[in-house]
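Posting this for the archive.
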Amino acid sequence: VKRFCEMNEKFNFSLVLTAYACPEYEAIFDKCNDLNIPIAVFAHGGTVGPIKGNPVLPLCTRSDKNTSKIYYLAYSEAMVDYCNGLREFFPGCPAKSIPLGSSYFDGLLKRKSSANWVQRNEVKICYVDGGFGFSTRWMFDDDASKYRNRYNVVDILKEKPGITLYFKFGYNIEDYDLGLIRSITSSQWENVQAIPSGKKLDEILDFP
């Protein structure tokens, strides 16, 4: 914070625009409120999602200080509606939520898809697995519940006609050698295909 104040004296910031990442940011945001500097925070990763009753992160978006100058830049109108609806549970969510979209996904959608990308009468679903340990660390869920959720997804879709489930492993979860993972990697179900941790999705997406 001291370093930020020194830089502000030199540059006289009119806006702080960033993605929330660590507690130090919160201290700087709090100082911005004291200095009347607007804050705009990018959504990223799991900072907000449709989990009933789950407050919006970062904490500065729930601050009751300088509420007219806190902005939360969300991915979509749906997320903005969700954030606004949270005020029913958390009245202290004063940030103005603004939908910006995602330039990355917007670029993908604007590309002309090839014949292999979209096929009639076939639904292709990709489940991207984020590995173990993260849910517990961030207090969203425990690993056992997360594993059960994966099992339920595969159990529902594994024999559905017209559906191919691509299970993208992440963070080398194959090394855990769990039953569900073994079943997927051994091609136990014809319409459930594994994408290994070491394979990037942009290497296999069929875009011209």
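The CA atoms of residues 26 and 60 lie 6 Å apart. The chain has a mean pLDDT of 76.
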